[in-house]
Amino acid sequence: TMLTIAPENVDALLIKGIAALADKDYDEAIALGERMIAAEPGNRRGIVLKARGYSLTGRRDEALALLRKAA
Fold it and tell me: Is 2 a residue whose pLDDT tops 70?
């Protein structure tokens, strides 16, 4: 897979993150969002992915804080 070749490829991480959300694996989506942000600080897609994972696990305050910080 692309992540085997380039483990911090943000496009591949996003695709995997969207799949994790679809599978209701919200912790995995959060972790993938964090990896995206680590690979590209300020990556908005990673921030949104992580915030969505937070929101879907009931961590709405953390989601809002993350999105506000990125705005």
Answer: no
